[in-house]
C-alpha cells in the first residue's frame, strides 16, 4: 500500500514520510473509496468486491473534503512533496482495475517480525526523552532554514498508527467495544488463519484478545498439505514418462477448501476494514525499514536490508526482533498474491492446478509458490518438500 | 601374431559409435532400475484454465501496484541548430514501453526506431535521436502488466535561440 504510493513520488519513500498525517489519511480514504469493485455480481468478500461500505467521498461531508487537487508548486513549503501523483494514480487506477490492497496474511507475516512493538519503543523513547538522541536529521536547503525530517516521520507514525484515529474514517476500527488496535488485529488473524502472532506482550505473556469461535483453525494444516502437493508437482513437472505422483485433483480440492474457509470469514464484506487497516500499518513500518530514511539514520541503523535495519533498531531499544525476520519479509508478498488468487476461486479446478507448479518465465504462480514453500518451511520448521509421515 | 590380433581387437576406446549405444542403453537401464523418470528440459504447455490462472496472477500483481511508472529525460533540452538528442527512460511494473515524437501541434514526427523498445530495455534504456530540427515533444508510454492502465511521460526539446 504505502510502498505502492512511494513508487509515484520522485524520491520514493524519502518523499512519502514527509507528508502531513492528514494528507496520508486522505489518501487512505481515497484508496478505500476507489477500491476494486469490478462487477456487482461478484459475491461480497471476493477480492474484486471486498466491501460495499459507503464511500466517504460520496457523503456530503466527505465530498467537501476529498475534492479537487492537492496544493502544488509554489504553494508547498520546503520539503513537502506534491501529493498529486499519488492521488492521480489512485483515481486513474480506480477507473480501471480499482484499488486492491494486500491480503491480511501480509500483515500477519510482517507483524510476526515484532516490528510494531519495536517501533512503539522507538516512539516511546523519542517522545519521552533523549536516550536515543534528539530525533531529526537536519537537512540544509540553499536560502532556507533547516528541516528536521525525522520529526515528521515521528508525528505521522504516532498519529496514524499508535493512537485512535478520528471518527468516520475507514481506518477507525477502535471504539469502546474494541479499544485495543493490536487486539483487533490478533482477533482478525485468529479468525482468518486460526493463528496468533508468534510473540505475546513485551514481557512475554500471552497477549489478551478476544478469540472467536468461528475461526479457520484448519487453515495452517490445509495450507501445508496444499504446499506439499504443489511441491510434488514442481518436482515432476518435466516428466515425460515414468511415474508422476502429481495429483491435480487433490491440489484443486485443497485450493477449494482454502477458498471456502477464507471466503466464509469474509461473508458480507466481513474483516475488510480490519484488513485494510492492518495492511496500512504494517506496510508503513515496512517502508520505514526498506531504506536508510532519516529516521533510520537517527537511529544509527543503516544497513543493507530491511531485517538488518530492524535488528539494529531492536538492539537500540532493547526488544529483540524475530530471528527469522528475513523469511517473514520475503514470504509476505508472494503469499499475499497467492491467497488473493485462491480467494477468486481460480485454482478450484483440476485443469488450473498446473499453473501452480509450471514455470512460465517469471512473475507467475510457480515462482510465488516456490518462494512460499522455501520460507514457510524455515518459519515453521516443517519441511514442505517432504511428504508428511503418518504414523501407522 | 598374438600381438597383432590384440591390436586389431576392437576396444571401447577405439569405437565411439558403439560406445554411445552402450552408454545410452546403460543410462536407460539405470533409470528404469532406479524407477526414476525421464525428463524433458521444458515443461508441458498450460491448458486454458491454467493459462488463465497465470494471467490472473499477473493482473493481481499489476492491480496491487496500481499503475506502471515511466520517467523520460531528453539531453539537451535546447537546440540552436539541428543536432542529436539523447533520450533516457526508466520504468517500473511495465509490460511494454514505447517512444513516439510529435511537434507542438500534435503531429507525429519520424523517429529512427519508433514504437516499442526491445523487451530487455523496458526497465531502462536510452536512444539517440539524430538531427532534431524543430521543437519536439517526446512521449514515452508504459503499458501495465495487466489490464489496469498505462502511464505516460513527456520530455520536450525546444528548438531555437535560447531566451532567458
In short:
The complex is a heterodimer of chains A (392) and B (164). Chain A is mainly α and 392 residues long.
Describe this structure in words.
The complex is a heterodimer of chains A (392) and B (164). In chain A, a hairpin with a 2-residue loop joins strand 1 and strand 2 (144-148). In chain A, helix 6 packs antiparallel against helix 15 (325-344) and helix 15 (325-344) packs across helix 16. A two-stranded antiparallel sheet of chain A has the order 1-2. Chain A has helices at residues 2-7, 13-16, 21-33, 60-65, 84-95, 104-111, 115-128, 149-161, 181-193, 219-236, 248-265, 272-289, 294-298, 306-317, 325-344, 365-380, and strands at 138-141, 144-148, 239-241. Chain A has 16 helices and 3 strands. Chain B has 164 residues and is of the alpha+beta class. Chain B has a domain at 67-159: Immunoglobulins (Immunoglobulin-like, Sandwich), CATH 2.60.40. Chain B is built from 3 helices and 9 strands; from the N terminus they run ααβαββββββββ. In chain B, the strands form 2 sheets. In chain B, strands 3-9-8-5-6 form a 5-stranded mixed beta sheet, with no helix packed on it. In chain B, strands 2-4-7 form a 3-stranded antiparallel beta sheet, with no helix packed on it. The radius of gyration of chain B is 30 Å and the shape is elongated. At the A-B interface, helix 5, strand 3 and helix 15 of A face strand 1 and helix 3 of B. Strand 3 of chain A pairs antiparallel with strand 1 (38-39) of chain B.
Amino acid at each position: 500500500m504505502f510502498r505502492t504510493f512511494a513508487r509515484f513520488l520522485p524520491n520514493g519513500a524519502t518523499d512519502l514520510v514527509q507528508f502531513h498525517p492528514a494528507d496520508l489519511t486522505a489518501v487512505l480514504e481515497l484508496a478505500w473509496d476507489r477500491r476494486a469493485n469490478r462487477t456487482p455480481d461478484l459475491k461480497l468478500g471476493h477480492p474484486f468486491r471486498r466491501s460495499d461500505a459507503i464511500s466517504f467521498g460520496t457523503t456530503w461531508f466527505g465530498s467537501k473534503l476529498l475534492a479537487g487537487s492537492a496544493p502544488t508548486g509554489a504553494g508547498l513549503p520546503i520539503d513537502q512533496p506534491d501529493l498529486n501523483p499519488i492521488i492521480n494514480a489512485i483515481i486513474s487506477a480506480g477507473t480501471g482495475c480499482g484499488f486492491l490492497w494486500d491480503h491480511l496474511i501480509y500483515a500477519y507475516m510482517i507483524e510476526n517480525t515484532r516490528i510494531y512493538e519495536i517501533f512503539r519503543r522507538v516512539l516511546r523513547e523519542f517522545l519521552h526523552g533523549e536516550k536515543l538522541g534528539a530525533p531529526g536529521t537536519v537537512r540544509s536547503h540553499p536560502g532556507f532554514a533547516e528541516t528536521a525530517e525525522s520529526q515528521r516521520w515521528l508525528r505521522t507514525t504516532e498519529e496514524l498508527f499508535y493512537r485512535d484515529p478520528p471518527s468516520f474514517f475507514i481506518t477507525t476500527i477502535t471504539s469502546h467495544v474494541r479499544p485495543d488496535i493490536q487486539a483487533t488485529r490478533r482477533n482478525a488473524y485468529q479468525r482468518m488463519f486460526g493463528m496468533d502472532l508468534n510473540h505475546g506482550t513485551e514481557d512475554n505473556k500471552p497477549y489478551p484478545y478476544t478469540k472467536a469461535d468461528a475461526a479457520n483453525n484448519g487453515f495452517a494444516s490445509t495450507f501445508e498439505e496444499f504446499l506439499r502437493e504443489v511441491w510434488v508437482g514442481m518436482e515432476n513437472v518435466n516428466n515425460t514418462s515414468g511415474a508422476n505422483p502429481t495429483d491435480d485433483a487433490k491440489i484443486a480440492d485443497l485450493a477449494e477448501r482454502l477458498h471456502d474457509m477464507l471466503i466464509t470469514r469474509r461473508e458480507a464484506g466481513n474483516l475488510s476494514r480490519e484488513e485494510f487497516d492492518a495492511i496500512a500499518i504494517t506496510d508503513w513500518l515496512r517502508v520505514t525499514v526498506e531504506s536508510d530514511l532519516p529516521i533510520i539514520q537517527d537511529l544509527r541503523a543503516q544497513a543493507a536490508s530491511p531485517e538488518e535495519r530492524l535488528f539494529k533498531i531492536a538492539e537500540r531499544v532493547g526488544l529483540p526482533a524475530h530471528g527469522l525476520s528475513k523469511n517473514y519479509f520475503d514470504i509476505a508478498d508472494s503469499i499475499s498474491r497467492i491467497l488473493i488468487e485462491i480467494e477468486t476461486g481460480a485454482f478450484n479446478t483440476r485443469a488450473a492446478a498446473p499453473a501452480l507448479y509450471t514455470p512460465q518465465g517469471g512473475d507467475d504462480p510457480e515462482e510465488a509458490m516456490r518462494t512460499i514453500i522455501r520460507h514457510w518451511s524455515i518459519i515453521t520448521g516443517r519441511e514442505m518438500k517432504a511428504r508428511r509421515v503418518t504414523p501407522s | 601374431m598374438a600381438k597383432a590380433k590384440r591390436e586389431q581387437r576392437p576396444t571401447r576406446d577405439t569405437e565411439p559409435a558403439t560406445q554411445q549405444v552402450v552408454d545410452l542403453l546403460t543410462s536407460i537401464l539405470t533409470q528404469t532400475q532406479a524407477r526414476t523418470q525421464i525428463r524433458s528440459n521444458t515443461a508441458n504447455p498450460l491448458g486454458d484454465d491454467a493459462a488463465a490462472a497465470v494471467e490472473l496472477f499477473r493482473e493481481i500483481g499489476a492491480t496491487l501496484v496500481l499503475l506502471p511508472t515511466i520517467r523520460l529525460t531528453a539531453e539537451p533540452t535546447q537546440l540552436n541548430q539541428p543536432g542529436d538528442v539523447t533520450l533516457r527512460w526508466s520504468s517500473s511494473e511495465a509490460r511494454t514501453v514505447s517512444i513516439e515524437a510529435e511537434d507542438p501541434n500534435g503531429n507525429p514526427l519520424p523517429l529512427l526506431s519508433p514504437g516499442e523498445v526491445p523487451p530487455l530495455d523496458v526497465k531502462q534504456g536510452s536512444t539517440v535521436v539524430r538531427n532534431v530540427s524543430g521543437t519536439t515533444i517526446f512521449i514515452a508510454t508504459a503499458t501495465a502488466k495487466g489490464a489496469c492502465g498505462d502511464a505516460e511521460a513527456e520530455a520536450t526539446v525546444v528548438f531555437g535561440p535560447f531566451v532567458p
